[in-house]
Each structure stands twice: as structure tokens, then as C-alpha cells.
């Protein structure tokens, strides 16, 4: 039986803010560097919100959309930094007021099985005919982000940009297709495989 590799972290500069992300095995031969934005403090949240807002402001968005759960603080901070007030959150857990919600099925690299994204139809007037930026913490497989884009567009909004704190590897590019060109990020993280008793980043093909 192969013994587990020793704990490792991945140092990262997120637009001038240094962090150390733990490398977390997903399978015995595959690992990711995990960013839990809610564990990195208020200053980090304010920083990434302000830096993403700088990239998204030229697109002149009317409103920000984020997906639960880790996209919520990103949506709030980007909205604040853009000088806006309202934002829309796409939920993942069913609630009594979401019985008639728009629904998209998604998958995530950090969650088991399929999940659902839910858009409260009461929030649709905030989106219809508006210029929208969709934000999240990390884009990895691209499934969650693609689901978010589908719900926003089904509400009659124009997606003018996508803001993520981190891009991970490159699978998301194929999943998003032409929408990949809308992505603005603050840093990039690789995925990892074991080599010589430690986790080593998988070389990028781009």
C-alpha cells in the first residue's frame, strides 16, 4: 500500500496578496491546491473584490451575479468595489421560496455528484435587459460557471464579463468555449500528480 505524501502548500501571489494554499488529494494520483476564500480573512476578500472590480469596471456592468457558496463573498465585495448595491446569488440548496426557480445541473471538482444551481424567479427583473458580470472564486472544470451563464442568459441578461479569483488548469476553457474569452482572473493554479515522494504541478499545455 502506498503511503500518503507529506502535507504540502502552494505559494501564490494573488494580485499582490501572498497566500499559501494547501495541496489536497482528490484521488491517490491527483491533487489540487485548495482556496477557501471564507478562511482567508476580511482583508483578502476586500483585496480580491477591489482587484476584480478594476478589471470589470470598463465593461460597465449593471449588476453582479455569484453562485453559492464560495462565490457569495466575491459577489458582495465586487459589487461594493464597483459602487453598486444589488447583486444576485444563485443558490445550490432548495429553499421554500425557490420552488419555481430556474434550474441548471452542474458538477464540481471539489464536490461529489451532481449539484443544482437555482435562480429565484423573483430576482429575474434585476437581470432582464441588464449588463451582467458573473463572478466566482475558482474556475476549474467550468461546469459551475457554464451553469451560471445559462441561468443569467435565460433571464434575458447580457453577460459582459466573468471575474474569478483563480483559474485552475485548463479544462474550463473547452467547457466554456467562446465564453472563455470573457474570463478575467487574478492568478492561476495548476493541478498536481505525485512524483519523487511529493506533489508536482502538471505542466500546462498552453
Molecular structure report:
With 206 residues, the chain is α/β, with parallel strands linked by helices. The chain has a single domain (43-190), classed as Rossmann fold, CATH 3.40.50. The protein has helices spanning 42-56, 71-82, 143-154, 171-176, and strands at residues 9-14, 17-27, 30-33, 63-67, 87-90, 102-106, 115-119, 131-139, 158-168, 183-189, 191-195, 198-201. The strands form 3 sheets. The protein has a 5-stranded antiparallel sheet. A 5-stranded parallel sheet has the order 5-4-8-9-10, sandwiched between helices. A two-stranded antiparallel sheet has the order 6-7. A hairpin with an 8-residue loop joins strand 6 and strand 7. It is globular. The relative contact order is 0.17.
CATH class division: Alpha Beta
Structural class: alpha/beta
How big is the Rg? Answer: 17 Å
Domain tally:
1
The third-level CATH topology is Rossmann fold
Q: Report the principal-axis shape.
A: globular
What's the mean pLDDT score? 92
Oligomer: single chain
Helix content: 10-25%
| Low-confidence parts | none
What is the spatial order of strands in the main beta sheet?
A: 1-2-3-11-12
State the helix count: 4
How many angstroms separate the termini? 35 Å
What profile does the largest beta sheet have? 5 strands, antiparallel
Strands, total number: 12
Question: What is the percentage of strand-forming residues?
Answer: 35-45%
CATH architecture: 3-Layer(aba) Sandwich
Provide the succession of SSEs: EEEHEHEEEEHEHEEE
Keywords: Glycosyltransferase, Transferase
InterPro entries: PRTase-like, PRTase_dom
Protein name: Adenine phosphoribosyltransferase
EC number: 2.4.2.7
Amino acid at each position: 500500500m502506498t503511503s500518503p505524501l507529506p502535507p504540502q502548500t502552494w505559494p501564490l501571489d494573488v494580485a499582490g496578496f501572498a497566500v499559501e494554499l494547501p495541496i489536497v488529494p482528490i484521488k491517490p494520483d491527483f491533487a489540487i491546491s485548495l482556496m477557501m476564500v471564507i478562511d482567508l480573512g476580511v482583508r483578502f476578500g476586500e483585496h480580491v473584490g477591489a482587484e476584480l472590480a478594476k478589471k470589470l469596471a470598463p465593461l460597465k456592468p449593471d449588476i453582479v451575479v455569484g453562485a453559492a457558496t464560495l462565490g457569495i463573498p466575491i459577489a458582495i465585495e465586487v459589487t461594493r468595489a464597483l459602487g453598486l448595491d444589488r447583486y444576485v446569488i444563485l443558490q445550490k440548496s432548495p429553499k421554500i421560496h425557490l420552488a419555481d426557480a430556474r434550474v441548471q445541473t452542474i458538477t464540481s471538482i471539489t464536490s461529489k455528484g451532481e449539484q443544482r444551481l437555482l435562480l429565484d424567479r423573483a430576482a429575474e427583473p434585476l437581470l432582464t435587459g441588464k449588463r451582467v458580470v458573473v463572478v466566482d472564486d475558482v474556475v476549474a472544470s467550468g461546469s459551475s460557471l457554464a451553469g451560471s451563464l445559462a441561468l443569467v442568459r435565460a433571464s434575458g441578461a447580457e453577460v459582459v464579463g466573468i471575474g474569478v479569483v483563480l483559474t485552475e488548469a485548463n479544462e474550463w476553457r473547452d467547457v466554456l468555449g467562446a465564453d472563455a474569452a470573457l474570463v478575467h482572473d487574478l492568478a492561476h493554479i495548476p493541478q498536481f500528480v505525485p512524483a519523487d515522494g511529493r506533489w508536482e504541478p502538471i505542466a500546462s499545455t498552453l
